[in-house]
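Our preliminary data section would be incomplete without showing what the modeling component actually yields. Below, a chain of 323 amino acids is followed by its predicted structure, encoded as tokens that our downstream tools consume directly.
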Amino acid sequence: MTRSDIGLIVVLAALVALPFVYREPYHLHLMVLILIWSFAYTSWSIMGRFGLVSLGHGGFMGVGAYVTALLWNHLGVTPWLGIPVAMVAAGLLAAIVGYPCFRFRITGHYFVLVTLALSGIVLQVITATRDYTGGSLGYTPQRATSGNHLLALQFDSKTSWYLIALAVWLVGLLVWHLIDRSMSRYALEAISEDEDAAAAAGVNVTAEKLKITLISALMTALAGALYTQYQMFISPDTVSGIAVSLQMVFAAIVGGLYVSLGPTVGAIITILLAETLRIAFGTSAVGWDNLIYGIVLVLFIIFLPQGILGSLLERVKIGRKPA
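Predicted structure:
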């Protein structure tokens, strides 16, 4: 066993033990949010790192959140079944939008615009069907009856939710690393450089791009469903739409798009920034975080294109090179 393996085991043990040692509810709440959003941002980066810049992930997250809650409230379908259904729905939506784009070589800013439209459509559908979704006023999953909390995936304990969010976050990192070590990574990197050359070399461009899009959409829908079950309240602006999609782009780029833990660093920054503004300025600072996100994003694209974690790792590598 190498030192890195031992270090990884120690870190994982510390993360698992944290909620049993430190039980401050507010800080555990922030940790749960950071882990859920880290998983969502990692889901986006799985596509984004290969040049597939999507602004439609707010739509996938909205589908995951609302389908799970609607199935529970109106049909009594437990989230244990509702979440897979919601993920399938998001996957179908990704396939319906993605396949024509990839089949007919819609790339670059045209692909961005298509995904932007997708995000807007999902937001408008949620808002327009207010008789079922609550519209812009938001939506609350029904509380489980006594003794039925496990079936309803509703827990009052922050510790339980922390462990669930931690497990999902680790799964997200595992998926990231599996893709990073697969042959699909090389195919997608070739596609991002030159689609025609990749196709000439025998790469099935449409299949590879569709595969990574489906994985990303399924994971994002799962993040939306978990956020719904944890917060027990959702609104179109918090889980869908262009604002959520842009937040994913910001976090992934600022943290480090090409590093597995980069989106996690981005989540820490976005969550803590939003909480700091809320505590310091209250309702007078609503929307300030988005303004700051935009300014910081421009600065990072110009001066730190590899993100915070990516730049730090690059400097460490340079420092280790022999003179």
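Residues 24-236 form one domain. The first helix runs from residue 3 to 21. Preliminary results of this kind motivate Aim 1 of the renewal.
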